[in-house]
Amino acid sequence: MAAAAAVDHPVEDVPAMTDPDRPRRPLGPAVRWAGRLLCWSLAAALATAAVDITVSPHTGWWHTVWPLPWYLTCASAAAWAALRAREKSAGGGRDPLTEKGIHTEWDQAA
């Protein structure tokens, strides 16, 4: 019971994702999808590089296919960087929780 009384801010004070006062981030989904594409294309690129080094396929199409995930990785990294920079310049990169000073209480506790 004492631990519950020591909490200054109950969970209700933290704004929910559906809070109407929370700022909208119109580029948020595009940034997330570009980031996911970047991660998955990098994983595919590393997998194809591992197959190329260990198995060394001698098919004619393999030498054309295995670098494609690397090209996709470069393109998705550029797309993610551009979208993220645009999101931050539009003000979507700010975290409303740190602006309200909720996280600053941890500094005072230390």
Task: Give an overview in words.
α2 runs antiparallel to α4. The chain has helices at 2-6, 28-54, 62-65, 68-89, 96-99, 104-109. The chain starts with a helix and ends with a helix. 7% of the residues are buried. It is mainly alpha-helical.
- Helix percentage: 55-70%
Q: Would you identify the regions where 5 or more consecutive residues have pLDDT less than 50? A: none
Global structural class: mainly alpha
Beta-sheet strand percentage? under 5%
Main pleated-sheet profile:
none
First-residue to last-residue Cα separation: 23 Å
Q: How many β strands by DSSP?
A: 0
Average pLDDT number: 77
Entry summary:
The chain has six helices and no strands. It is mainly α. The protein is elongated and about 60 Å long.
Which structural traits does this protein have?
mainly alpha, 110 residues, elongated, single chain
How are the SSEs ordered, and which strands pair?
Layout: H1 2-6, H2 28-54, H3 62-65, H4 68-89, H5 96-99, H6 104-109
